[in-house]
Amino acid sequence: MRHPHWARRRIGQLDPDRDARELLHLAFEVRYGAPDFIHSMFSLAFARQAAVPGIAEVLYRGGSGLILTDARKRNNDTLLYFGELFRHGTAGRGAELIARMARVHAHMPISNDLNLYTLATLICEPRRVGRQLTGREFISDREFRALFVFWSEVGRQMGISSIPPDEHAMYRWYLDYEAAHYAPTEAGKAIVQSLADEFAARWFPKVLRHVGLQFYFSLFDDDLLRVFGLVRPHGVYNLLVRLRVNGYLRMLVPLLPDGPDRSLIDYFGRDYVPYDFDKVGVRPQGVRTS
Hints:
Blueprint: H1 6-13, H2 20-31, H3 35-50, H4 53-60, H5 66-69, H6 71-88, H7 93-106, H8 112-134, H9 141-157, H10 167-181, H11 186-203, H12 209-217, H13 222-227, H14 235-255, H15 264-268
């Protein structure tokens, strides 16, 4: 029988430079991997990308982008890609998946700095979310380092250049880039509304759709609300979101035993029947997109 703290014990034995993949798997899939939490944080990071006009236009594609026409599938596919990388790492099968993703993006008008900012959201947003919603760091320095090591290698294999030298420099670059480039666009507003609708539909019944939208927008800081022309949700929603996030990160995760080994694939692969990552990104028969 496994020790109740088996995952955190193993994390404590790992080196974030040498063992980044395993450390991130244990941290972000096993310990912090509740599907609603992961989806919330991913949807927030996605909104940050849509606040950059160049990224928003690439995603929008004149209104035909998958994030608008089938947001659930678009989000599932990306989270499944993350799950596959956490499973395989950046060599072997993982390197094949990274090369495949690079080919998918090769024909798109995406500059290096747009790619770099997208990469930075994966590295830096978990740290900022903890500070914003709980007033403290919910990921450790070692986990932050592992995020940088792992995703920087993914970025290098995808051909992204000028990656800052460490996680702290990346975080500074991340904030500076936002200050210089965030701007409102109709494309960005449409993408964020689609993200909000998908969030509400996934986690709330239809009669509570408005509540789901307000929960999602309560994750936004003032900069994001301003760039998308949104009003801060009522204080009740802000309070409930903070209670939910704080309860999960400051009580449930630290106090409860570590759960079973799990992957993002376990939940976000359910819409694929049967699940086969080689079919992710296309629309094969057997894929539910409702």
